[in-house]
Write a structure and sequence with these properties.
By secondary structure, the protein is α+β, with helices and mostly antiparallel strands. It contains seven helices and 25 strands. The protein has helices at residues 164-167, 196-211, 276-285, 334-356, 390-399, 402-409, 415-421, and strands at 2-3, 6-7, 11-15, 18-22, 30-38, 41-46, 49-54, 80-87, 93-100, 105-109, 116-123, 126-131, 139-146, 150-155, 169-175, 184-187, 190-193, 216-224, 230-238, 243-249, 254-260, 292-300, 304-311, 317-320, 326-327. Strands 8-9-10-11-12-13-14-15 form an eight-stranded antiparallel barrel. Strands 21-20-19-18-22-23-24-25 form an eight-stranded antiparallel beta sheet, with helices on one face. Helix 5 (390-399) runs antiparallel to helix 6 (402-409) and helix 5 crosses helix 7.
């Protein structure tokens, strides 16, 4: 959807006189009824009333393809969303969620190192998992469904089959109606988070402000997980106590951590900004290649909020967090600082080398002066063409006079330096 001042990307459906579109930004979501007036004109009724839309000149009439039928369900599969809570021998508690889809795909949401996704099949009372993440996660497990609400799985590592009684792993899952922590959009086979600003506001009011009333969000980081989903970390800074809080969400998990905020970002984000899927779409149009691996949005000096997008292949991209337009060039200031440091150090080396360069002897036409002392022909750390300020350097250093020391070091001591420390 394009107007001179608005650019919206989303998904739409239209069937049997009803239409809807979803953008990831609730204020732009809409729906209602439609009526085709002719091959080039449609009348839509929605939130803003009734309007007529005309096909753009030069575009051909396209017939929508037939609906794709859903994949055949896996016969006998315990399809559904299953969850389990447990703790290890040290008392650490964990929470896992297992999605078994009717099309034979599965996703496991768990602590970072054990997330997984892939395909499964059913043979009798056994589930055969084929991981797309790690072959070590591929396995056959026996399963039993009890009362339609409890799934019990049993797995014995093949290497310990003779001692199955001691190494059998039994897991009990219960059917869940839990909603995910955030909504997603399918991009490149991944479930990319959307409506991020709304979740940031929820984390602010539910977690950060009850902790410190002056806390505000300064940084959002998104990172791909092995199961094709993403984690989102919201960092909040409280200036009154110079502390930070980080609220991290996964699809079905959440953690909260606080720390000293002396080294964190302090410039607050605006309450609304370009949603991540729209930033990805703008970057792809500008040449971004590969699956999104990481993304973050923060406020940059002289640039405002901006998304930084890192794909699995190719170069990082930057998108303005207000306009949604791609940004070219470095907005972090790192390149400018690096070049300035390089120029400064280069100038210092030029100055030092010019002082150490041999000077022509007044009594010789040679471009090299000769030494009157019989020493080694090897390299020397000092030049015979200038005075030795070793005494002044030693005395000024012993007195803690940094400025005088630097003047001696550069060969430019003043009269006061020589009087006080010796030349």
């Amino acid at each position: 959807f394009n107007t001179p001042n608005l650019h919206i990307i989303g998904t739409y459906t239209a069937r049997d006189g009803r239409w809807s579109h979803e953008t990831g930004q609730p204020q732009f979501d809409d729906g209602g009824t439609y009526r085709l007036l002719d091959a080039n004109t449609v009348e839509l009724a929605g939130k803003l009333g009734v309007g007529r839309w005309t096909r753009q000149p030069g575009t051909a009439l396209q017939t929508a393809p037939a609906p794709v039928s859903a994949p055949a369900a896996v016969s006998g599969a315990p399809v559904g969303l299953w969850e389990r809570s447990y703790q290890d021998a040290a008392g650490q508690k964990y929470f896992d969620v297992l999605e078994l889809a009717a099309d034979g795909t599965y996703v496991k949401h768990a602590r970072r190192g054990t997330t997984d996704r892939g395909r499964y099949a059913v043979s009798g009372r056994a589930l055969s998992f084929q991981s797309l993440v790690d072959e070590r996660n591929s396995r056959d497990v026996a399963f039993t469904v009890m009362g339609g609400t409890t799934l019990v799985t049993e797995f014995v590592p093949p290497a310990f089959a003779r001692n199955a009684a001691f190494f059998r792993q039994v897991e009990e899952w219960r059917l869940s109606n839990r909603a995910p922590n955030f909504r997603t959009l399918a991009i490149d086979g991944r479930s990319v988070p959307r409506s991020i600003a709304a979740l940031m506001a929820t984390a602010l009011t539910a977690r950060a402000q009850p902790w410190r009333p002056d806390a505000l969000p300064t940084w959002v980081r998104v990172e791909e997980l092995r199961n094709g989903h993403y984690s989102m970390a919201f960092t909040f800074y409280a200036p009154s106590s110079v502390e930070q809080m980080t609220v991290t969400y996964t699809a079905y998990g959440m953690t909260v951590a606080t720390a000293d905020g002396a080294r964190t970002l302090t410039e607050p984000l605006p309450p609304d900004f370009v949603d991540l899927p729209l930033a990805v779409a703008a970057a792809k149009k500008d040449g971004l290649a590969g699956v999104l691996k990481k993304a973050d949005i923060r406020v940059y000096k002289n640039h405002g909020p901006a998304w930084s997008l890192l794909p699995t292949a190719g170069k990082r991209a930057t998108v303005n967090g207000v306009t949604g337009e791609p940004v070219h060039g470095d907005i972090t200031g790192y390149v400018a600082r690096y070049n300035a440091d390089w120029d400064r150090i280069h100038a210092q080396w030029r100055s030092m080398l010019s002082r150490l360069a041999p000077r022509p002897s007044p009594s010789s036409s040679s471009s090299w002066s000769s030494s009157s002392s019989g020493g080694s022909d090897g390299d020397s750390g000092s030049s015979s063409s200038g005075p030795d300020y070793g005494t002044g350097l030693q005395n000024s250093w012993g007195s803690g006079d940094t400025d005088a020391y630097n003047r001696f070091q550069s060969g430019t001591p003043n009269a006061d330096d020589c009087s006080r420390y010796g030349c």
